[in-house]
Amino acid sequence: MELRKWPRKNDPDSIAARQAALDGQLDAEVFEHDLTPWVRAQEALTGVTVIPTSVIGPITISLGEYELTEPEGELLERSRTTEEVFVPLAHTEGSLSDSLYRGARAAAESGGFRTGVLRDRMTRASAFVCRSAEDAAALARWIEAELPQMREWLAERGEEWVSRYAKLREVETYVAGPLCHVMWAFTTGDACGPNMMTRNAYALNMGYVMAQAPAKPERAILEANMGGDKKPSHRYFERGGHGKTLIAEATLTDEAVRRVLRTTIDDLLELSWAGTHGAVASGMQSVAFTPATAIAAIFAATGQDLGMIGTSSMAHGTGRRVEGSLNAAIRLPGLEVGTVGGGTTLPYARSWLGLMGCAGPGKVYRFAQIVAAATLALEISASAAMATSGSENFFKAHFERGGLR
């Protein structure tokens, strides 16, 4: 059967042709929207999907303000403020919104969340195929020694397709036989940055390495799968480096745990002990309860790349008794977020980002910290529900608010 030609453009005639071809196969409501704001969002635009969105808050958060040093790109905390923030959650999962609110309330009654950004990088894992392992090793040494010159060369590019916002910070090599893997590490400003750092990695591969290396490689591969792009990776879980590396914590009082979370610190620590060993036994990449749930809901509301939930939801949670309270913390090693570009330009995304004070330039570290705090809020509440005797509260939440029975 020959594949029928499908109109791919997003001009009005092409959109109408796609909708007509699907007439009768879909409810008309998916077409009953003005698609003009979405014509640049993706190819073959045909309709829209509406996701119910709740607003939870206020969430009390101590937020850091950061700047990057040049040329190394290290993070410096300039100041810190405590704010109350409302967070949008786009999802269809029963009990998620209430649970996140409960965790946020327990934290607020205990002094709130404290968040921080530890690292900021986006990487492209290229590779060069050489004639021999000896040539690959020589190429690796040459590439690492050329870092300062590569930074200058990239900054001087005048081509329109080379991004001036994606700044080269480090380069790391890994030699396996005749393969020289190269990890280009960039910062990308307020954009999440996969497009701009891909363009700049291509420029470095073809315009610098292939053109100037003492022994020219036989082939360059832009992405050779050693990175953490849109998938969990032990390297990035341990070291960070694909997105923002964050920490969020709250010290929950015994009263807040008993009254708001309806459990005890002992029960939560017992759950942490059992859950950590369960994670080890299964070979789980993360040590956490349900981080992807909160991250996906915020991503959907704010126009983030949903494919990046895989990397972004890697998490390492901890719980420890401190002076009659419980310190609960979570590390997100690779949260891939942006406040400019991509889906953040869509009307609904701008509105929800604006609600959090995160729309536009200069807001990406703020946004990342809010996502981390919201993720920890859900971790706290979901863990508390599971920690009750027989995990009764967790069962009831899914029975009573799990949709159709």
What would you note in describing this structure?
- With 405 residues, the protein is α+β, with helices and mostly antiparallel strands.
- The protein has helices at 12-21, 96-108, 133-145, 147-155, 194-212, 234-239, 254-259, 265-282, 291-302, 309-312, 347-355, 364-387, 392-400; strands at 53-68, 75-90, 113-129, 167-176, 179-187, 219-221, 243-252, 316-322, 325-335.
- Strands 1, 2, 3, 4, 5, 6, 7, 8 and 9 form a nine-stranded mixed beta sheet that branches.
- The model has no long low-confidence stretch (mean pLDDT 91).
Q: Kindly state the mean pLDDT as a whole number?
A: 91
Describe the global form: globular
Give me the number of helical elements: 13
Q: What's the end-to-end separation, in Å?
A: 42 Å
The sequence of SSEs as H and E is HEEHEHHEEHEHEHHHHEEHHH
Short description:
The chain is an alpha+beta fold and 405 residues long. It is built from 13 helices and 9 strands.
Draw up the topology in text.
Elements: H1 12-21, E1 53-68, E2 75-90, H2 96-108, E3 113-129, H3 133-145, H4 147-155, E4 167-176, E5 179-187, H5 194-212, E6 219-221, H6 234-239, E7 243-252, H7 254-259, H8 265-282, H9 291-302, H10 309-312, E8 316-322, E9 325-335, H11 347-355, H12 364-387, H13 392-400
Helix pairs in contact: 2-12, 8-12, 9-12, 12-13
Which labels suit this protein?
single chain; 405 residues; alpha+beta; nine-stranded mixed β-sheet; 13 helices; globular
